[in-house]
Amino acid sequence: xxxxxxxxxxxxxxxxxxxxxxxxxxxxxxxxxxxxxxxxxxxxxxxxxxxxxxxxxxxxxxxxxxxxxxxxxxxxxxxxxxxxxxxxxxxxxxxxxxxxxxxxxxxxxxxxxxxxxxxxxxxxxxxxxxxxxxxxxxxxxxxxxxxxxxxxxxxxxxxxxxxxxxxxxxxxxxxxxxxxxxxxxxxxxxxxxxxxxxxxxxxxxxxxxxxxxxxxxxxxxxxxxxxxxxxxxxxxxxxxxxxxxxxxxxxxxxxxxxxxxxxxxxxxxxxxxxxxxxxxxxxxxxxxxxxxxxxxxxxxxxxxxxxx
Length: 308
Prior knowledge:
Layout: E1 16-20, H1 25-36, E2 40-45, H2 48-61, E3 67-71, H3 77-86, E4 94-97, H4 115-136, E5 142-146, H5 169-193, E6 199-203, H6 212-220, H7 223-235, H8 240-252, E7 261-264, E8 273-275, H9 285-299
Parallel strand pairs: 1-2, 1-4, 2-3, 4-5, 5-6, 6-7
Antiparallel strand pairs: 7-8
Helix pairs in contact: 1-8, 3-4, 4-5, 4-9, 5-9, 6-7
């Protein structure tokens, strides 16, 4: 794993990938590098203009690449269902659950969920479940969920998943990222119990320079905070390309283990991909099952064929 880079990505010809949030940041880099290696890539993005622009950028940089925009709003379960129903490709080798929001002011999704929990976890939970038959039918398929080292700031509050009792933006974000890791843990356990070869793994980008840090302050008009975040990106963060490496490693490197967590090393901030530390509560079987059951109830998406 030492020194692993995009040049080490294996040939992806004949494989199909869905990358959520592929219009910018590490999602765009992930989609571009998979396309560079020959994969057919579906750019699953909420904003049509930005999604189409991202597709044009990749095709311009990589003539002949097979990339396609399809609209997906993870904050609207009707959109998630529409995307999954419209996915008619015969195979799905890689599902990259990358899209996310961070430290936003309190808000609700179209279905009434707290925005960060609803987008970062529930939307991807529903999407993965609805696309599961395609994944199960594709030899060597993988699901990679992008979490964050910030997950360590907060365990889930199973009695208040939607932050109805108290809302603190960074705690809500940390809990949504803990939910990502618990989801991967439980998905990997259920896939193993079903005898499936699908690999569920997680990754995080460390501190990467993307628009994720500035979106919340910009939304609220907090210009000083936005400028401070932008300055931090310039002075301290690694590039979006470097931040995408852990995701690309988890998606394509040989021997990636189920329920693994890949991040930049050695301190989880920047550097080449390597196994990352994670909080013990993200491998709690009881918590994983409780979150799974709650997520099925909240989304109405039941994972057929994956028993408890």
